Every structure is written in structure tokens, then in C-alpha cells.
Request: fold
Amino acid sequence: MADKTDAEQLSIATHIRETAFATELASLVRNTDESKDSDGNLIPSEYLAVASQWNGEIEFRTNKSGLSISDLKTKWTTHKASCSEGCQDGWFL
Amino acid sequence: MAWTAPKDWVSGEIITASGVGSLNEQIRDNMLALSVHAHTGAAGDGSNTLTNVNLTNIQSFGFADQSANPDALGELQRNGNNLFYYDGTTAIDVTSADQIAGTASLRTLGTSATQAAAGNHQHVISQSLTGYISTASEASAWNGNELSSRTVQTGTYTASGTNKVLIGSFVYFTRNNYGGINFWSLYDMTLVFSYNGVAKKTVVGMQTVSSTSASVGSEIYQCSFLPDGTNTTSYTFTAEKTTQDSATVILYPLVKLGITEVAITV
Reply:
């Protein structure tokens, strides 16, 4: 399969993050006001990043509490099986 | 039983049982001789040259030593202890193993130049580090609610030879240089590492903050790819700020980018 283009990499990463992981994305706890815990430490914001690369490999990164990379892989695999928006076009974990 | 040349019968001749020209000699004895003929080429024993013969259920062939190689197309002939076939050009030794490279022959199993590797043989792949760069850089800041892409680092890399693999890795940071009020905000970034004008790795959703107390960075990302031969080839790292907030910031993008070159040999 041909190498993935710049546009294809951006498109699939955005699609997965905003569509396949829409629920997880909406539930991220974001520290928008520099809140600190009782010890005075900054409370980190939760993030969910999706990376794609030239050979079709997909990678997930998150620090969301209770959400593992394995969870994300399982969810995307399920999503991919019925996705008609590009996930089946040579993308893999 | 010896073969007797058949006689010519003449009219009125008396047929006898035995003796010269008798039925026993002419019919019985010659039939007995034919029943065991061995193709020696002698009279009554069949020719010692057979053509257009299909042989089946052969038990064995015994080749007599001709002390010479065959020299006619299609001939198979023994010379000493070896059997040779002449293919029209060369007398090929079909019995000696591990002959020189380029000569068809039987091969023993092994790893020398004239042996054949076993079907389950394995190669040992060795790797060595043959090149490495690691560069940190910073681009101009996003001011306030500006949304745009910044080229944070550019450079070139020249592979040191053939059969190399490049591993690109990067970690990305931002720092806020604005120390006034309302500077704390969250921002999403899209990061792209490109080589030879083509994206190799794209990260969507990297999150950073406009803290002034600490730089905030991504996790380390890596990707491997083949170099552009040994050409001096450009690479680029860009960061795009994709979300905005109400805070006033002067947000600088920074990247630490490395390219590791690994030689692969078998």
C-alpha cells in the first residue's frame, strides 16, 4: 500500500480522535483555571492524543484517569470494523 | 545354447530330428537361444545398440568405466568413479557434490560458498549505530489568540551509506513568556515531523498550557523510515496551535528532535 500522505495522516488522526473517541474526548478533565491540589501542586489536565505515520501505523497517548491505551486500542478496533470514513484504508495499530 | 544361422530349405529335402540342419538344431535350439539372448551384438543375440526403447521397472544400471567423458549431446557416461552428462557444451559431473559456484551440482547442507543452506536456516541480523543528530530549537511565539503553524526546526540529514534505517524522535514543549494576569490557558497542538518533504509522523491533540512556571511538553514520539539514499535531505518539524483561549500569552514552541541512523547487515 502506498505511503500515507500528509493530508491522510492529519485526516485519520483527527477523525479517530473526534469521532471514534468522541465520548472520551468530551470527558477529559481539563484544568482551565490553574487549580491546585491540597498540597499546592498543579492539577494536570487530561489529554488524548492520536498519532499517525507514513506507513499507516496509529498510536494513542492519554493520561485520562481510568482510561488505558489498551482500552483505546480495543475501542478503535471495534470502530474500525464498521467505519466508512477511512479507518479501513490501511491503518493499523 | 549357441545360435545357429538358419538354413535355406529346398524342395524335396528330408527333415531330420537331429544333426546339422535338423528341426532340433534349426527350431528348438535357436528358440532356446533366443529365449535368453542378452544383446551382446553377436549373431542371434540382438544388437548391442538399442534405439527408441522405453524402459520401465528397471532394477539397476551398471555403467562400465569408459575412462573418458561423454562428448555427444544427451550421452551419460561413467569416467572413473563419476558419472557425466554431456549437455552439448559441457560434460557435467552429476555425482560430485559442492562443485564451484555457477556449476550445477549436488550440494551438501552448510553455509560455505559452494553449499546449500538448509530450509530452516536462520540469518543473524546485526545492527549498529552509524549516525546521530539531536538538536533543540525554538520558533517565534504565538501571541494571544493567534492560530497558525510554526516551523520549529529545519535541517538536513545525509545518510552515511546504504542499507540504513533512520529513526526520527521528538519531544515538544511550549513556554509562555507573558507574565501578566490571565495567562493560564490550555491549547491543543498538531505536530508534524517531515522528511524529504513528506510527513512521517503526525500527532493530533497534543495538549499544552501557557504556564509561566514550567515548560509543558509532549511525550516522546518516534517513527522509523528509510533514508533518501545518501542524498543530503531536508527534514522539518512544525507545530500548529489549533485552539485558542481568552488569555493573553506569548507562547513559544520548542522541540528537541533527533535522527538516529542504524545500519542493518545480514
The helical segments of chain B are 23-35. The two ends of chain B are 71 Å apart (CA to CA). Chain B is about 5% helix and 40% strand.
